[in-house]
Design a protein that fits this description.
- The chain contains 5 helices and 3 strands.
- Helix 2 runs parallel beside helix 4.
- The chain starts with a helix and ends with a strand.
- It is globular and about 40 Å long.
- The protein has a 3-stranded parallel sheet.
- It is an alpha/beta fold and about 120 residues long.
- The protein has a domain of about 80 residues.
């Protein structure tokens, strides 16, 4: 996996703004379909990002929805940008809630900064 990442990152340019909600909606829709819901699969989504999220309310709402499904997310921060939103999503210090106050069923996000490893 690391070799694939290293090869891909050489050909990739990361730029903002950063929006997670669009692909999270597609991911949620995919795993909520009957075909996936009735399977015994567990899903892991790896997200590479280079900055703060510009749609945090919608993203946190989707993360709370995803927390009730067999899903985990790994968010990898690349570079030295502001990753405070990622720490909020990681929910190590405080349970993630959606904008209406609904708490996540469990902590499904792990955030790591690539430079630390």
């Amino acid at each position: 996996m690391l070799r694939t990442y290293h090869n891909a990152i050489k050909k990739t340019t990361l730029a903002g703004p950063t929006y997670f909600a669009g692909f999270l909606k597609r991911f949620l829709k995919l795993i909520e379909t009957e075909e996936y819901t009735n399977s015994k699969n567990f899903y892991v989504l790896v997200i590479l990002t280079d900055g703060c999220i510009h749609d945090m309310k919608e993203t946190s709402s989707l993360m709370v929805q995803l927390s009730y499904l067999p899903v985990s997310l790994i968010i990898v921060g690349i570079g030295d940008e502001d990753f405070s939103d990622m720490h909020t999503l990681d929910a190590d210090q405080k349970i993630l809630t959606d904008p209406s106050g609904r708490p996540a069923a469990r902590d499904i996000v792990q955030f790591v900064q690539f430079k630390d490893f």
